[in-house]
Automatic annotation (TrEMBL):
It comes from the Bacteria. The keyword Transmembrane applies. This is Efflux transporter outer membrane subunit. It is found in: Cell membrane. It is a lipid-anchor. The keyword Lipoprotein applies. It holds the Pfam family OEP. SUPFAM superfamilies: Outer membrane efflux proteins (OEP). InterPro entries: MdtP/NodT-like, OMP_efflux. Belongs to the outer membrane factor (OMF) (TC 1.B.17) family.
Length: 504
């Protein structure tokens, strides 16, 4: 008996020390990327000072707009946004799943105890006399206590690969939260730019309403003096009504954007009315980044998440391959049984087992090899998804840089057009007052001026959004924000002493 037990222990020890991990080890995909972006013509390599400046800009890019209100809104959004908090709890959940998978490395032990009466059937021929019950009575009292345990020997690395996959999944979930943070900051900044530009448009509309009122007053004055006519007066009144009507949708947009910003901050719509309703000067368009090497693409959380998903899929191949190999488990049971309390601890009441069990898959109709092929296909799909993520990221950066450069000249031309139109409108009103032109010329120049001013305002919005889109495409903003874990309303610490004692 002792020799056999020693042989079993020796076998188990030998297996443990000779354990191997089957399946492929993860290797990063060697995708080649250009050293610089096409839309950037760098005449000389970036200096250390330029690289340091760019890295700093990547950390808190929203501060480059020189708008303290925007900076404060970003801080509130990071602290209060519910989607970001939900992403934090997903990280906690994935870590718990990883820990649950790692628990397979350790013996699983449970204790049990019980007492009661049982009755056996006696309507069976040749029923053997039960030990300890010589009179063969059908009923008996039983008291029992004991423990059961099971320990899986991770000989071929199934558990190791499973833990590895869940660890990579934790990292992917962290990158997913960072990607969500970037999207949140991008949406918040874009909404804030839209708010300020819309308020600028309301100011333009209000100014044009005053101009239309002056034109109506002038038309009425000329009519009373016998120079004008009722047609001109009606046209001036219609223009004034149109200008007033055009301002109302802008007010609605301000309210809607303010509500959207409040929700991004985790607040009820309307809570930011007092803070945001007062118009401010437009944020300053930041300077173009000092240096733009393509290595900055390593900042993008979506690329980092796709790379981690590829690592997850690679580890899952090992899990599938391990199922083709033998499975070793050490089950242990200890359950004394007796009919009286004083007998429970006697030698004759002892009942236990200690075994080394091995199982080998023999015939499963191709199920196990199919699972391996499926895991390999999923890993290849994850690798291709990573590559596609890199391509999409480069496209977004190139598009953002192209828009940045092209919109500079576009905005300058619209600014010049707005100034020229305003001058033409002022001259037309003076000429109309002198009776040298008709009111139609006044209407035409005023409408042209309004259109040019609104187009200039929208061009300013595009310039601001170009900056937001570029920094977002570069993966900027998440490095300066630490991961935050949400506290759960129910935890082991809130439970009774038994739950806390046996929670491991």
């Amino acid at each position: 008996m002792k020799m056999r037990s020693f042989s079993c222990v020796l076998m188990a020890t030998t297996l443990l020390f000779s354990a191997c991990t089957v399946g492929p080890n993860y290797q990063r995909d060697g995708m080649k990327v250009p050293a610089a972006f096409k839309e950037v013509a760098e005449e000389h390599p970036a200096t250390p000072a330029e690289i340091e400046r760019t890295n700093k800009e990547m950390t808190e890019w929203w501060s480059l707009f020189n708008d303290p209100v925007l900076t404060d809104l970003v801080k509130q959004a990071i602290a209060g946004n519910y989607d970001l908090q939900i992403a934090g709890t997903h990280i906690m959940a994935e870590r718990a799943v990883r820990d649950r998978s790692a628990s397979q490395w350790y013996p699983q032990v449970d204790a049990n105890m019980g007492a009661g009466d049982v009755r056996y059937s006696i309507n069976i021929d040749n029923w053997p006399i039960r030990p300890g019950n010589p009179s063969n009575r059908p009923g008996a009292s039983i008291m029992t206590y004991g423990a059961s345990a099971s320990w899986e020997l991770d000989v071929f690395g199934r558990i190791r690969r499973d833990v590895e996959a869940h660890e990579r999944e934790v990292e992917a979930t962290i990158e997913g939260r960072r990607a969500l943070l970037m999207a949140l900051l991008s949406e918040l900044a874009s909404d804030y730019m839209l708010l300020r530009v819309t308020q600028l448009q309301i100011g333009i509309a209000t100014k044009n309403i005053r101009v239309a009122q002056d034109a109506l007053s002038l038309a009425e004055k000329l009519y009373l003096e016998g120079v004008g006519n009722t047609l001109q007066t009606a046209q001036a009144q219609a223009e004034l009504d149109a200008q007033i009507a055009a301002r109302e949708p802008l007010k609605t947009r301000v309210s809607q954007v303010t509500h959207a910003i409040a929700v991004l901050l985790g607040k009820m719509p309307g809570e930011l009315e007092d803070q945001l309703k007062v118009p401010r000067a437009l944020p300053v368009v930041p300077a173009f980044p000092a240096t733009m090497p393509s290595i900055v693409m390593a900042n993008r959380p979506d690329i980092r998440m796709a790379e981690r998903k590829y690592a997850v899929a690679t580890a899952q191949i090992g899990v599938a391959v391990a199922s083709l190999y033998p499975h070793f488990v050490i089950p242990l049971t200890f359950n004394p049984n007796a009919s009286a309390m004083y007998q429970l601890f006697q030698v004759n009441s002892m009942s236990w087992s200690f075994l080394l069990m091995a199982s080998m898959p023999l015939m499963h109709g191709g199920k196990l090899t199919a699972e391996v092929r499926a895991a390999q296909a999923n890993a290849e799909a994850a690798r291709l998804t990573y590559r596609q993520s890199v391509l999409n990221a480069f496209k977004e950066v190139e598009d953002a840089m192209a828009a940045w450069h092209d919109d500079i000249e576009y905005a300058e031309q619209l600014h010049k057009a707005a100034e020229d139109s305003s001058l033409a409108s002022e001259r037309a009103r003076k000429l109309y007052g002198a009776g040298l032109v008709g009111f139609l010329e006044v209407l035409t120049t005023e409408r042209t001026t309004l259109k040019a001013q609104n187009m200039e305002a929208l061009a300013k919005l595009e310039r601001l959004r170009d900056a937001v889109n570029l920094y977002t495409a570069l993966g900027a903003g998440w490095k300066g924000v630490a991961l935050t874990n949400s506290s759960l309303p129910v935890s082991v610490d809130n439970q009774n002493i038994l739950a806390r004692a046996f929670s491991q």
